[in-house]
Amino acid sequence: MKTSSYNRDTRDLEKKMRGTMGFNKLLLSQEKKALTVLFGVSLLFVLIELVMSILTKSQAVLMDAVFDTLELVMTMISINILPLIYKTFTQKQPFGYGQVETLLILLKGIMMVSVTIGIMVTSIQLILQGGVIIQHNLISYFEIFSTLLSLLLMTYLTSINKKINSPYISLEIKQWILDAGISLALGIGFLLPNLVQTSFLNNLTPYIDPLLSILLACFMLPVPFKTIISSCKDIFLFAPEDEILDVINEATQRILEHHGIVKNEIEVVRTGRKLWIWIYFTPEHDLISLKEMRSIQHRLETEMKIKVGDCYLEFLPDID
């Protein structure tokens, strides 16, 4: 009964795998469509924010404009390199082109940190110079409009990414959620002096824009820093997150125990969106047939692709 149940589970897994195979072109098309929409919305944001920053002389709006310009450039590059990411690996490129995407995300993180620090320095200089008078109402209405548009785009990207599981789009979703929250906070912040009339707030009015810019930068900085750290780990082939390793270990342990095999070691690295898994084992009686090895590897690979996504797996005897 145990073997029958195991075989039935294997057939179910294979059925699921057949349903997920052969869709690379479809995934490429869907991701390219999502990035094209993202490019269009980012372009709209950049144009509006540049006009608003010129009209209002607001550092906070200028910071948004610079960030969205970076988004625009990175998205344009992503659209062009996307076909490379979906290429299968070859003898000349044994790890494929996954690291191209990782390098792009790393570059974006470094640029975001540089721009944020630059605007923080400018805002501090404005505070030391006595602040700046801007049109608070106009900026407030604009930021509330930006919040609604950011939420709409975030909802669209989330629905698309459930199908394609793109690391770049996952990063964009986090960024747009952060943008929506910050835009809402800025809208309320700029509207506050008109809603609450006190001598303290009237004296604070010239400093509201640079102060909000500094707060905005402090909220934004952790995201690119985390992106840089994660990208560096992938580039230097560090192991992925503990959550992923736990899933791999649990599935491997369960499958190998059924065959009476002892798992010696598992090595996992990530390049872009692909995982590379090496499982080393010792058979119970020092012997194992090639047929059984192929069967176990197929079972492991099938389950890993369903549970952790795109991966390459090797099942190897430990001969040390």
Strand order of the largest sheet: 1-2-3
Which runs of at least 5 residues are low in confidence (pLDDT < 50)? 1-6, 12-23
The SS-based structural class is mainly alpha
Shape: elongated
Using only C-alpha atoms, the radius of gyration works out to 25 Å
As a percent range, the share of helical residues equals over 70%
- The CATH fourth-level homologous superfamily of the largest domain: Cation efflux protein transmembrane domain
Distance between the termini: 36 Å
- SSE topology string: HHHHHHHHHEEHE
Report the biggest beta sheet as strand number plus sense, adding barrel if it closes.
3 strands, mixed
Provide the number of structural domains.
Answer: 2
Give the oligomer, counting copies of the same chain as homo and different chains as hetero: single chain
Overall CATH class of the largest domain:
Mainly Alpha
CATH architecture of the largest domain: Up-down Bundle
Q: How many strands in all?
A: 3
* Beta-strand residue fraction: 5-15%
The overall pLDDT average reads 79
- Under CATH, the topology of the largest domain can be stated as Alpha-lytic protease prodomain-like
- Structure annotation, total helices: 10
Characteristic terms for this protein:
320 residues, mainly alpha, Alpha-lytic protease prodomain-like, Alpha-Beta Plaits, 2 domains, three-stranded mixed beta sheet, 10 helices, 75% helix, elongated
Task: Give an account of the 3D structure.
This protein is mainly alpha-helical. The protein has two domains: 16-235, Cation efflux protein transmembrane domain (Alpha-lytic protease prodomain-like, Up-down Bundle); 239-317, Cation efflux protein, cytoplasmic domain (Alpha-Beta Plaits, 2-Layer Sandwich), CATH 3.30.70.1350. Helices cover 75% and strands 9% of the residues. It has ten helices and three strands. A three-stranded mixed sheet has the order 1-2-3. A hairpin with a 2-residue loop joins β1 and β2. α5 (136-164) packs antiparallel against α6 (167-195). The chain is elongated, with a radius of gyration of 25 Å.
